[in-house]
């Protein structure tokens, strides 16, 4: 049930971004472009990608661009910078590691690109929203 709740939060965040971001599309563009940067390739991430694609299918003109870093933080930073260079309107990032991903998340925020972090936060508060568990609270509760 916990996974369903987390997926629901991702969908709500995507829906909010779609509704808000759709207002800023330029005259030469229909809809928005969402860049998704996954930290790895596994069944869980593939399912996330399929579900995001299914949800965005309800919004014609919305395009998803997926990248997977294969557990390589440097590759993920390159992927995210590449997505920004392509002009994405929104980034959904599942960070591989906190430290290496923090500067590129700040860079995206500095460019005015909304960032949704999934599963893991980075060492800055310059992101739009976080979808995941509060690991510190879980640790305190467990202790």
What does this structure look like?
This protein is an alpha/beta fold. The protein has five helices and five strands; from the N terminus they run H-E-H-E-H-E-H-E-E-H. A five-stranded parallel sheet has the order 2-1-3-4-5, with helices on both faces. Helix 1 packs across helix 2 and helix 3 runs parallel beside helix 4. It is globular and about 50 Å long. The relative contact order is 0.16. About 6% of the residues have low confidence.
Q: What is the radius of gyration computed over CA atoms, rounded to a whole number of angstroms?
A: 15 Å
Biggest sheet record: 5 strands, parallel
Strand residue percentage = 15-25%
Q: Tally of extended strands? A: 5
Which stretches of 5+ consecutive residues score pLDDT under 50? Answer: 19-27
N-to-C SSE string, H for helix and E for strand: HEHEHEHEEH
Form type: globular
Task: Estimate percent helicity.
Answer: 40-55%
Distance between the termini: 23 Å
By DSSP (H or I, 4+ residues per run), the number of helices equals 5
Q: Helix/strand/pairing class, anyone?
A: alpha/beta
- Largest sheet strand order: 2-1-3-4-5
Mean pLDDT over all positions = 86
